[in-house]
Amino acid sequence: MIRPDLTLPIPEHITAAHFIGIGGSGMSGLAGMFLDRGIRVSGSDRSDSAAMQAIAARGATVHVGHEAANLPDDIDAVVFTGAIWPENPEYLLAKERGVPVLHRSQALHWLIGGRRLVSVAGAHGKTTSTGMVVTALRAAGADPTFVNGGVIASLGVSSGTGSDDVVVIEADESDGSFLLYDTAVALITNVDPDHLDHWGSREAFYDGFVRFADAASEAVVISSDDPGAQEVTAALRHERVLTFGLADTADVRVADITTEGPVAFTVYYAGLAATGRLAVPGAHNAINAAGAVAVLLTLGYELESALRAVEEFGGTVRRFELHGTRREVSVYDDYAHHPTEVAAALAAARTVIGEGRIIALHQPHTYSRTQAMFREFAEVLESHADHTVVLDVYGAREDPVPGVTGELVSGAFADADKVHFVADWQEAANYTASVARPGDYVITLGCGDVYRIIPQVLEALGSER
Fold this sequence. Notes:
- Cell wall formation.
- InterPro entries: Mur-like_cat_sf (IPR036565), Mur_ligase_C (IPR004101), Mur_ligase_C_dom_sf (IPR036615), Mur_ligase_cen (IPR013221), Mur_ligase_N (IPR000713), MurCDEF_pg_biosynth (IPR050061), UDP-N-AcMur_Ala_ligase_MurC (IPR005758).
- Belongs to the MurCDEF family.
- The structure is a single chain.
- About 35% of the residues lie in helices and about 25% in strands.
- By secondary structure, it is of the alpha/beta class.
- Helix 2 (about 50-55) links the parallel strand 2 (about 40-45) and strand 3 (about 60-65).
- Helix 1 (about 25-35) packs parallel to helix 4 (about 105-110), helix 5 packs across helix 9 and helix 14 (about 425-435) crosses helix 15 (about 455-465).
- The longest helix has 18 residues, at about 365-385.
- The termini are far apart.
């Protein structure tokens, strides 16, 4: 991967920009905001996608595949995502020409331009939490600008340009770029050590969050329950810290959570109480909602009105998203790619399946994470799913590591009868269909391209007798 140099100067004026990796949900959203500003946009990605087609329909010039010829002659900046390779021909040509090459966080920083910024960070839950904050502000009558890491289902987009002074973004801690922003309100969902290939150590990872939070000009909203967040909170010097969660000491406390049917719960704050009900499943989303409510409290909203606004959230794409049902087997997709996220996704599924079983279709993400956490993945999948089908590793930006395959995960199961490793996707789809029974839930898990197997699974289910 390319490590961003966040010290590089950002051009004062940009009239034309080229996006390498424009098909990603975050990058396509960012490109859309450039179009909103009247900036000419071009871009490329390795494969076609709905996001590519949507941004092209808005006026961007897009290319499938990365080639030097894709780079226009008259651009002011190139924007890249850390997922591209250093040998990318468009990236290399831009550097050769002396065109400013900006990490996507730098481009977003340029767009924000000093407005009141809510930055949402954390190893898990930040896309959902960002969507909740954005939805709530809009439901309360505000019109924020926003950039999320996933599509907000009710809006059909991952980003939007609003007329208000408030900007809400999903801030990325994976490469340290969340430290670039001039954040007003920092929301930290959790501090579960990840991306240590960038940070180097658990201590450095925690220190990054401390710096991110202490730099917030107005307030810090942080989990009361997560052990890592507790460590960060203890190290903060900020004058206004609002904790949220299940702990009795939480400033915004969640209690009385019920998960049968819609998630219902009570939020307590400053001697007041309000009950809420969500359209998305899972006890973890009641806690995410409390974090979103806490953000609105720091922005001046009252508890009752803040919770009513958060209730309007209808989910984000690739977060427990139903794709279809065949012979009474429902097929869902979820972005979960860390053991904690997988546990939360499967626990949420468990609350809505009735008498059915959960069949997890897991695609390990990156060789480094798989090598470091294959035992944790196996433990979570074995304890939360009734049966697991493991695919091979989605390498993303990483080169293959000898011996690191999906078989590492399947081989770590205590009960070999509960797991099946299949590298070939069609074989995996056929096998999944063969073990599924009416009333079961199949759920794909991973932040790579595992969702692309869903049509094959649905077809296999339809032909299975």
